[in-house]
Q: What sequence folds into this?
């Protein structure tokens, strides 16, 4: 084993098993594991209460495991991730930083900037795939364009020649000596005193941590996977795998999940068990949607703030605060929708089918901006996952080529009869309707007065009337679609537009193209390194290339590191300068064949008013109100 010192930067890969960054560091010398909590850099995507509770438990579990292996997990709270990493480098004399990839737009920008600065200072930076079966840049069509339908993407994944490779956990870790200001998991401030009583209930239903994740997955495979195809659509109870929070925080390796399920499928195929085969196919397809969410976010990094299909920028959303409040509090008058939103409020969790129903209601019935719903899910879900939220809400709102049609309006009454036929789910979360007969449970407004009286239901008093009639909602949705078409036609007036048929393929859809720009190969190039997308679309306008300003902590750590590296000479700097980050030196020397530009901010398309984005943002008083309600 070499005597190299390596900083292992943990993020959403909170496990010891099949952690490629940790495995690489452990095999090359001593390690300094660190988790950096930087609320300031989270911005509008600061995690919600239940998500922070899970993170706190997961960090405690990871810390115990690393300590058993011989190294301590250092927890740091800071205003600058870069400054914290530089402090660790200065304290330990480390020559390398390793981490596993993230693919959301916020992380892509941050990671690029951090890597760029570290490489300029002569620090070797290597990153790995610890979150996906295949990297987003490994899967494109024959012309090198990103695939924009899930079926095409997943089919290509399943027929990839390269098999995912898992990494065994290290047998032991050699700790790198170094003293930095570190925090306990309590001192990170992930949970305040007012939240602890509510969070205590979460511990009864969930067991965060990578060691617990293995047990949850094993139980699902042995007890529930066989009947997954039959039970997965049942709302309420444990009809799904419940693995999403473990996968989000990287406590469970998606490669191991895929390989284990695939092995079960092979065994069931040999035994002629068609139900088991179908169950595994559907379960792996669910894993595929998670993969696809990262694929879309990487290749179209603007999707957290605008639709993939650009024509929807003309849709006249109804930014009604009262309707938004009624929706999130479960006061819409539609029982299945209200039950779902109240369960979300109380537990931080709802079944995937319920997520589809409540989000479709918000977008299609109430015409609420889909980004409002996406942000609310981010704030309240236990498994809040930005990439999956983006995919889900864009899918529902008609923003994807293979998503729900924009004009599709699903009736909650019919959905309730289909997915909660006995009304047990509604009765569990709406006690005011607990005595309603099954015949009327999903549409109490149609029940005879005698039935309502016997059930103790007074519409408009203890349970509200529907917030909007279904026929009126359908009419308003149709009017909004026609208005969108009119505004789009007006915007296009005077331009030489070519009318094409988009019904059979996606080649001519108004989707920006993404390219990965090749540069001269580098002798120390690693195929594991993170790539960064470049939007190849003239309508997007110029992307900001300004170098971010450094705060005082960063300047101090930069000066300390520069003093140390100048004493060590320039030889190592010249050897390690090759990186995927586009440092100024790397640009001049063309040293990396995977060097790409990344926007520090995303610009609206030409002719597109910023008002489209600003008018639908939650203002501060509204955010405060939601926080107060949640407390």
A:
């Amino acid at each position: 084993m070499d005597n190299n010192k390596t900083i292992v930067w943990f993020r959403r890969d909170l496990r010891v098993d099949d952690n490629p960054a940790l495995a690489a560091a452990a095999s090359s010398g001593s390690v300094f594991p660190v988790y950096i909590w930087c609320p300031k850099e989270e911005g509008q995507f600061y995690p919600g209460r239940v998500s922070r509770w899970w993170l706190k438990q997961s960090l405690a579990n990871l810390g115990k495991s690393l300590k058993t292996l011989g190294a301590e997990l250092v927890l740091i709270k800071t205003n600058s991730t870069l400054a914290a990493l530089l402090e660790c480098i200065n304290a330990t004399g480390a020559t390398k930083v390793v981490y596993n990839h993230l693919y959301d737009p916020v992380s892509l920008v941050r990671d690029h900037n951090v890597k760029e600065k570290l490489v300029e200072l002569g620090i070797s930076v290597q990153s790995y795939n610890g979150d996906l079966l295949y990297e987003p840049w490994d899967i494109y069509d024959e012309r090198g364009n990103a695939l924009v339908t899930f079926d095409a993407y997943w089919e290509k994944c399943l027929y990839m020649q390269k098999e995912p490779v898992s990494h065994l956990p290290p047998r032991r870790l050699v700790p790198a000596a170094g003293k930095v200001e570190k925090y306990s998991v309590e001192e990170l401030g992930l949970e305040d005193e007012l939240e602890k009583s509510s969070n205590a209930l979460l511990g009864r239903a969930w067991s965060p941590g990578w060691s617990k994740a293995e047990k949850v997955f094993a139980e699902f495979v042995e007890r529930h996977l066989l009947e997954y195809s039959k039970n997965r659509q049942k709302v309420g109870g444990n009809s799904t795998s419940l693995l999403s929070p473990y996968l989000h925080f990287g406590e469970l390796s998606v490669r191991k999940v895929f390989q284990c399920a695939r092995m079960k499928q092979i065994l069931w195929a040999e035994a002629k068990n068609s139900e088991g085969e179908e169950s595994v196919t559907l379960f792996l397809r669910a894993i595929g949607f998670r993969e696809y969410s990262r694929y879309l976010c990487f290749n179209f990094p603007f999707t957290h703030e605008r639709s993939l299909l650009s024509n929807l920028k003309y849709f006249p959303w109804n930014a009604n605060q009262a309707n938004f409040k009624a929706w999130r509090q479960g006061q819409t008058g539609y029982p299945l929708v209200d039950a779902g939103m109240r369960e979300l409020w109380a537990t931080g969790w709802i079944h995937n089918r319920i997520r589809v129903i409540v989000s479709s209601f918000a977008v299609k019935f109430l015409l609420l901006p889909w980004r409002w719903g996406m942000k609310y899910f981010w704030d309240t879900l236990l498994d809040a996952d930005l990439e999956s939220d983006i995919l889900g809400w864009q899918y529902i709102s008609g923003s994807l080529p293979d998503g729900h049609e924009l004009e599709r309006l699903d009736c909650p009454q019919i959905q309730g009869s289909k997915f909660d036929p006995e009304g047990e789910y509604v009765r569990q979360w709406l006690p005011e309707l607990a005595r309603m007969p099954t015949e009327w449970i999903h549409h109490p407004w149609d029940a005879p007065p005698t039935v309502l009286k016997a059930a103790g239901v007074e519409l408009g008093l203890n349970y509200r009337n529907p917030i909007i009639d279904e026929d009126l909602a359908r009419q308003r949705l149709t009017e909004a679609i026609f208005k969108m078409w009119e505004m789009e036609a007006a915007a296009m007036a005077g331009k030489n537009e070519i009318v094409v048929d988009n019904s059979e393929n996606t080649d001519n859809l108004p989707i920006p193209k993404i390219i990965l720009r090749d540069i001269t190969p580098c002798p120390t190039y690693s195929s594991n390194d993170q790539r960064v997308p470049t939007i190849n679309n003239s309508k997007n306008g110029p992307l900001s290339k300004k170098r971010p300003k450094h705060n005082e902590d960063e300047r101090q750590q930069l000066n300390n590191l520069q003093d140390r590296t100048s004493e060590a000479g320039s030889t190592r700097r010249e050897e390690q300068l090759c990186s995927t980050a586009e440092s100024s030196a790397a640009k001049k020397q063309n040293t990396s064949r995977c060097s790409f530009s990344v926007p520090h901010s995303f610009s609206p398309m030409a002719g597109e008013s910023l008002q489209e984005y600003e008018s639908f943002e939650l203002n501060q008083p509204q955010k405060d109100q939601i926080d107060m309600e949640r407390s």
